[in-house]
Amino acid sequence: MKGLNVVKISLQAPSAHYHVPFTNNPRNTYPLPPYSTIIGMLANIIGERALIERTLTQEFSIGVLSQFGTLEQYSTSDLSRQGALTQEYCWLRNMSREMHAQRFVEATNRRFQERPEHPGGQIPVVCDVLNNIRTFLYFSHSDQEVMQLVEKRLTQPEKWFSHLHLGRAEDWVIPYASEIIELLPSDQAESQQNARNFYQWLPAPESAFLGNYIDDDEYQDFFQRMNGSVTLVTSLFRLVEVPYSEDRKGTIRSFNHVKAKICRSQIPLDNRLKIPVLLTDQRLCSPVFMAKIEFNN
Fold first, then answer.
1. In the predicted model, is pLDDT for residue 205 greater than 50?
2. pTM of the complete model beyond 0.90
3. What CATH number did the domain enclosing 225 receive?
4. Cα(243)–Cα(77) distance, rounded to whole angstroms?
5. Pair 166, 173: CB distance under 8 Å
């Protein structure tokens, strides 16, 4: 059976932080990038606003496999002791007039105890940081030309908006391979044996891309059996104007969300005690869970 054509992008990075919303001090990290972060990097690679709009307003899907540290470190529950997960201090800053006045008294002053500081407000924050990261992105689009464009632009850094990063701006990534491959549907153990080596988002049935490859009822049963914490993963956003005060308005990002599980485990047997049919990367010997990313006006 013919598989699903995808652009596979292989990345590595020394460190990264994928912020879990509403965590502040410490700022916790997901073990893999959310869909919104991946979409942002793809837009950076494409590098032209008209082409980005064309990409995001048509049907597409995304999958991601990610690991950090080493496989040996996965055998212990305390990753921080092994150096796979560390913490660092950083400054969060803003340009609030009120916070500037509290610290510096006068608007024209930015010296505190005879030392110049950032204007506005700032606060020290602890961030969880992943180390030694390998990530594999899978991007499928209804327009084959878009997929070819993404693969081509990956080798044209002069077209990018900025350096490639996943997470914070300082979380640079190095792409070391890209190719258009087929994700093949398979229920063979050897095609899924490395599932436990990678973190993945497992999208809920209403958000999963199944195509003609996976039966809806079988995927529903698989989703219920698979271990993982359910979360809402950010995807596309739109700009919304909101009131800040009686005389001020501002613009915020209003995100769409994909219901998904964070998972890293072997694939469970179905109710017939058989391995479920899943889309697989035959080279990595792992299933790849593809999520439909939908554009809402």
1. yes
2. no
3. 3.30.70.2660
4. 45
5. yes
